[in-house]
Amino acid sequence: MTQVNHPRVFDLFETIAIVQGEPQNLAHHQRRYAHSLASFYPKQCYQVFDLASVLQKFLADNPPNHSLMRCRIDYNASDMAMHLVGYQRRGNLTFQPVICDDIDYTLKFTNRDQLNTLLQQRGACDEVIIIKHGFVTDCTIGNLVLKKNNHWYTPSTPLLNGTQRAKLLAEHRISACPILLRDLDRYEEIRLINALNPLV
């Protein structure tokens, strides 16, 4: 693996939480990483690295110096580059709905230009809720969970199948259902979830 500086060399990336030196939720990250390679490079050979082995070596060479760290893995069909930084979890956020019917973020692309453009429409809020064809999808940095009657729901129409979302669904801690823009006022609370921000 090589370390490069050009941001367009790698088309895809993963973000993994490192808690007390231990990578989190690796099975879901490995599954998405392999699926993304197969989807993005269907007509060429690609190499699927074992993320657990790669991270073990990387963390041995770069010992974490915070209790919670963000490990970003940029990758393409044959190579990857890793970056490690300390991370502070997001608190409760405010959200502004924005409509975008042509957005496609089914894979974790390094090109986030469209997401960044949508984020500029947040106004006085912290984040946006992206509405596609009338349905709630995600915010720009993760999936969403919405609370109603003491239960958490996640939209069944996400832009990206996030690893934290997959974990919570597998644990039956959240339920997936269609959520329309007009339904938002039926929910008591909205939270961001992603690899570094679990549902607590």
TrEMBL record:
SUPFAM superfamilies: D-aminoacid aminotransferase-like PLP-dependent enzymes (SSF56752). The keyword Nucleus does not apply. It comes from the Bacteria. Keywords: Aminotransferase, Lyase, Transferase. Signal peptide: none annotated. Pfam families: Aminotran_4. The keyword Cytoplasm does not apply. GO terms for molecular function: lyase activity; transaminase activity. This is Branched-chain amino acid aminotransferase/4-amino-4-deoxychorismate lyase. The lineage of its organism: Bacteria, Pseudomonadati, Pseudomonadota, Gammaproteobacteria, Moraxellales.
